[in-house]
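User: Could you walk me through two proteins back to back? I'd like the raw sequence and the structure tokens for each, with a short line separating them so I can tell where one ends and the next begins.

Assistant: Of course. Protein one, sequence then structure:
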Amino acid sequence: MDIPPTQLPHGGLSLVRGFSTPELFQLTFGQLVDQQAARYGSKDAVLVGWTNARLSFQDLSLRTKELARGLLAMGVGKGDRIAILSGDDERVVELFFAAGRIGAVLVILNKTYTVNECMRALEHTGEPCDRDSETLTD
């Protein structure tokens, strides 16, 4: 059952309580990656042993910009949901930050989900955009 946000407490927005210092960052995911790339450059940002992936902060910034441009070229935009059935490797990290750069939402479905579990998760997250996953990894 879907409840309109206007009928939820605080208009459907999260309510955060606690200390006010340090202040929360006011950055987009793209700005965060770029900031870390400027700060840490060639230092390791992502290491994945089973794929032998090693991405520096600078690599992550560049790769997520390229992937974001590719997503835009495919017609994916702000507010779109990208659902992937995935494990946990460097491609998930890249896609997470690339989606964030363009305002899209990455919905990560566990690769051990059954078909019914995937369908139920997708019902709760909204309709994902319809794109071929192989295109994203090329």
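----
Protein two, same layout:
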Amino acid sequence: MAPEVSSDRSYNTKADVYSIGIFVEELFNIDINTSTKYPGLNEVVAAMLIYLYNKRPNCSDILTMIKQPNIIIFLTG
């Protein structure tokens, strides 16, 4: 749950970005501070998990980030 939601503050769709970041972090067992298993994906997940929602990317930004060649190669196998 995004920090702004759990503390009963106002929130927007960036709370969903945070939640998806948590899901991806767990799904791929990523430690955003140390993992090198998924090049490029760490940076995307780290951005999704930024505490302050106004600093967190929106969905359009995330789509742009995952279009990086190294992430596309990882995602398509």
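The two ends are 30 Å apart (CA to CA).

Let me know if you want the two compared in more detail.
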